[in-house]
């Protein structure tokens, strides 16, 4: 009975969302669904607006298997996802493309092993294609997030030792594309900070784009524990810097999705420096943080943290976060919501639902005429799904009306239209 209800709902949604008469009909609305927060807003019409969804993650190491059978002659089974592709199909629009995301933050060894030689690349790619067939997915999202270096192990493994990955990365993608064939989707999650784009240059990007359908540019965590001064972790200006770098390297803007973060970040700061900065400029933007990672190992020192909107707010920062929500400021120039808590010495950075619709979508998606938007992740925005709803409504307006609001600065006018 439950399944039948959602089938009927999906059929109704198809009638409602047959497609716009004008505008950007192929605009992507891509969602990651994660094992950490495997919940979906099945009660909301906006879920039917999702064009692509990636289930995250399947570990990269399993794709280096030699042969398709185990020692007993039985076919290899793929690690089970937290939710099957078939089950997910019952909960989304029938037109939604479902992908398996491979890898993720810190998962590099499997990719490195698979990319080393023509033979290893062929084996890796063959296994990816076999997994797609076995799971019934529409494609894969490759989350080898930092090929060439600057990943989680950058302090322990110098970038010079990973320089070979810069040329191997597009070769691995090419092998995967060949194994998948032309009809399956191949996307890639890629860095948002220019200093991390070691494998994404004018020499490599054209080769990369010959294999992938589109890139998910991670325009979040743009302030991370490697930073030493406060800034926005998902701001408009640093998001534009990211997408502009890919465009300059040869990526068509229509093949870029820019990312939204459905979570909150906070960082510990140096009190005296932030007081001086605030007294001088009226804002703690650009003041010094405490050292956030071990200078020798890169290990997290526990001075930066994050939680999703679905999580309980950590008890030790509940009062500070409440102040951030009520007393925070939107930086119109940098394009980010922030708050410096002088009492707790904490810097808060996150997107509000209103800012996503009235600032992020117009100033990034529309201004650069990108191919779409994505978010990490859908379940992270539960149980209210306010950011997801705001994103979908703004996305839909762009899809239906095209680029008419691009470059406009009147946020109140845009809010009224939404």
From TrEMBL:
<protein>
    <recommendedName>
        <fullName>chitinase</fullName>
        <ecNumber>3.2.1.14</ecNumber>
    </recommendedName>
</protein>
<dbReference type="InterPro" id="IPR001223">
    <property type="entry name" value="Glyco_hydro18_cat"/>
</dbReference>
<dbReference type="InterPro" id="IPR050314">
    <property type="entry name" value="Glycosyl_Hydrlase_18"/>
</dbReference>
<keyword id="KW-0732">Signal</keyword>
<dbReference type="Pfam" id="PF00704">
    <property type="entry name" value="Glyco_hydro_18"/>
</dbReference>
<dbReference type="InterPro" id="IPR017853">
    <property type="entry name" value="GH"/>
</dbReference>
<feature type="domain" description="GH18">
    <location>
        <begin position="27"/>
        <end position="398"/>
    </location>
</feature>
<feature type="signal peptide">
    <location>
        <begin position="1"/>
        <end position="23"/>
    </location>
</feature>
<dbReference type="InterPro" id="IPR011583">
    <property type="entry name" value="Chitinase_II/V-like_cat"/>
</dbReference>
